[in-house]
From TrEMBL:
This is Sulfatase-like hydrolase/transferase. It is found in: Cell membrane. CDD domains: LTA_synthase. Gene3D superfamilies: 3.30.1120.80, Alkaline Phosphatase, subunit A.
Length: 664
């Protein structure tokens, strides 16, 4: 083989286009990395060591990705006979094929810039997830960016590069045989297999700055790595305890004073929740607002005055100012708010197989004669929402339920404007009222999402901007509450307003805690006295807390707790990505990672930075492990399902001389 690769050898001539593609790809990778570095701004300190790491390790991943990306060209160079290859037709096939590959690489690079601008990372599980929903994703891109102009510019750049570097695509072959070419392909295949098995995307994560680690990667490589890890089995990839220890610990962690276990089965967390006195069968309207970060609000330091109505609502509500979301995707928020469970690695339960008939918030309400609806302004097949809610106690209501001829003030690829969504919700509330039923509505908004287009003449901010979308979110909630005040059921309704997740997930740490801070209002002038609650709280605690305010006595398998029953010092939250599982307790954040890795830090709650926590708090590590391991185990083994006994009435607790819970 050594003689085969002399400068003018036939094999070297034959496979020279591979060198052309490699040079193009390495240059594209470097330019992309430079652009992303600038987009990171202050996220990457001006430290030459960081830059050297990002570009040095990044080059290695670019070359590894090239091994995979070069296969279409490799197959052409291998299979096409010499006579056709060196002909005019063969030369033009090489030009056209090279142009197609180059355009594809440029398009991927441009897509990475867009993705980074939205999420602050290379392609990851979110990109994989979005491939399933091409209508919404492509529509979102078309409505958000000048796609035609960009494609034209990329095509022009492709033609210019191919023309200027056409000698690198010269179809030359001084007489190779199929067997000779096959040896080259065999070596390439061997390299492909070895790198695929031996190299992992996590090898690059060696610095203390998440942006630098992301810059060190390769978008294409990260995409396929995320694809392979979309179904992470907790017990296979994460730190574990013996099952009996994990469940023993979990039963201690989820036990609260008003709860009693119904059995001694160590893997059964079913508790009877008992409150004193009669239940309050008030209507409940839960609004999960798309991408609503706490720091959009003046209350938390924003100077733009884009949430005047929600800021004003604080003094009229029970307001929680220290709440943390489960994740960075809508499905994680929906999972937390409907099932009250920590996030499982990989796919959300909302999208997982065998996610039917689970113990949900709707089950508790339905057992009391409520009409439980999930109301969405888009098409609920997206993210499997209609299927999940429709099979877990809710009636799924979406864009299809808006009749032709009904007023639609605005819509984009994600759905109708929030004000039209609230009109649809009011219709469901009116119908339940007419039937004499109390109602539980979970409303999921869409307007605060790129392309950020909103109805005209609602807010002064420029249409198509995040500021306009947030301001419109604020306006539409105020308008909804105003319209609801005119309804006969308003005085008997509790409005719970929170977010599914924050608007951005990017930060310099793997789990930047400031990117999980969301607000929560519980508003009901006739039933809930205004107050400020500053205890640390998880998104999974929202439903148990609301049920506590309603004085419900019921059977529960929720992992969350009524914050007013949880003893001080036991607060915790579960901020996570699709593979990094966070456990926040006090001022310490424990993060469980694949390959059974672990990090424990003291986070800065203002900017998301963190410093290592030493020594490791092993008790907190074991608590985090117990929560996540048990949640994954119970779902995997079908033990989160609703059982017939769950509907049995639970006797209220005996009166005690202690003060009534908040809100009574």
């Amino acid at each position: 083989m050594a003689t085969a690769y002399q400068p003018n050898s036939p094999l070297r001539q034959r496979f020279r286009p591979l060198l052309w593609l490699a040079v193009c790809y390495v240059l594209i990778g470097a330019l992309t990395r430079i652009a992303l570095l600038f987009m990171s701004g202050s996220g990457v300190p001006h430290n030459p060591l960081y830059w050297a790491y990002a570009f040095g390790v990044g080059l290695s991943y670019d070359l590894i990705a090239f091994i995979y990306l070069a296969w279409p060209l490799m197959l052409y160079l291998w299979l096409v006979p010499q006579r056709i290859y060196v002909s005019r037709l063969g030369q033009w096939l090489l030009y056209v094929g090279g142009a197609v590959l180059l355009f594809g690489l440029l398009f991927v690079a441009a897509s990475e810039l867009v993705f980074w601008g939205e999420f602050g990372t290379r392609f990851n599980f979110i990109a994989v997830d979005y491939l399933v929903y091409t209508t919404e994703v492509i529509g979102n891109i078309r409505e958000s960016y000048p796609l035609g102009t960009w494609i034209s510019l990329l095509a022009l750049a492709t033609l210019v590069v191919v023309w200027l570097s056409r000698r690198g695509l010269a179809a030359r072959d001084g007489g190779t045989t199929f067997l000779q070419r096959s040896k080259v392909v065999l070596v390439w295949l061997l390299i492909t297999v070895v790198t695929g098995v031996a190299i992992k995307g996590t090898f690059k994560d060696r610095t203390d700055n998440a942006y630098v680690n992301e810059l060190s990667g390769n978008g294409v490589y990260e995409f396929f790595a995320a694809f392979r890890s979309s179904h992470l089995d907790y017990s296979r990839f994460y730190r574990t305890l013996p099952d009996d220890q994990a469940f023993t610990r979990l039963r201690e962690l989820v036990k609260t004073p008003e709860a009693t276990y119904v059995s001694n089965d160590p893997q059964d967390i079913t508790r009877e929740i008992r409150h004193e006195g009669p239940e309050k069968h008030l209507n409940v309207v839960l609004i999960s607002v798309e991408s609503f970060s706490a720091d959009f609000m003046k209350e938390f330091g924003d100077k733009r005055n884009i949430t005047p109505n929600l800021d004003a609502l604080i003094d009229k509500s029970m307001f929680f100012d220290n709440l943390y979301a489960n994740g960075t995707r809508t499905v994680r928020g929906l999972e937390a708010l409907s099932l009250s469970v920590p996030p499982t690695p990989g796919d959300s339960i909302v999208k997982a197989h065998n996610n039917e008939n689970l113990f949900s918030a709707a089950n508790v309400f339905n057992d009391r004669g409520y009409q439980s609806d999930f109301v969405y302004g888009g098409y609920g097949y997206f993210d499997n929402m209609n299927y999940f809610f429709g099979h877990n106690g809710y009636r799924a209501v979406d864009r299809n339920d808006i009749a032709k001829g009904e007023t639609i003030h605005h819509e984009n690829v994600w759905g109708v404007a929030d004000e039209d969504l609230y009109t649809l919700a009011l219709k469901q509330m009116d119908e339940a009222q007419a039937q004499g039923k109390p109602f539980f509505l979970h409303i999921m908004t869409t307007s605060n999402h790129r392309p950020f287009t909103v109805p005209a003449n609602r807010v002064p901010q420029k249409d198509g901007t995040r500021e306009a979308a947030v301001a419109y979110t604020d306006w539409s909630i105020a308008d909804f509450l105003k319209r609801a005040q005119g309804k006969p059921y308003f005085d008997n309704t509790i409005f719970v307003i929170t977010a599914d997740h924050c608007a951005s997930s990017a930060g310099r740490t793997s789990v930047p805690i400031n990117r999980y801070h969301i607000p929560l209002w519980i508003y009901s002038p006739k039933n809930i006295p205004p107050q400020r609650v500053s205890r640390q709280m998880s998104q999974i605690d929202i439903i148990p807390t609301v049920l506590g305010l309603l004085n419900f006595s019921y059977r529960s398998r929720f992992f969350g707790a009524d914050i007013f029953q949880l003893e001080p010092g036991r607060e915790r939250a579960f901020p996570a990505t699709y593979e990094k599982l966070g456990y926040l307790h006090g001022d310490v954040l424990t993060v469980l990672e694949p390959q059974r890795k672990l990090e424990q830090v003291k986070p800065n709650f203002e900017n998301g930075d963190a410093v290592p926590h030493t020594p490791i708090d092993q008790a907190q590590v074991d608590d985090a492990t117990a929560y996540y391991q048990a949640a994954a185990y119970l779902f995997k083994h079908g033990k989160m399902v609703k059982r017939p006994d769950d509907s049995k009435p639970v006797q209220a607790a005996s009166p005690s001389p202690e003060a009534s819970p908040p809100g009574q």
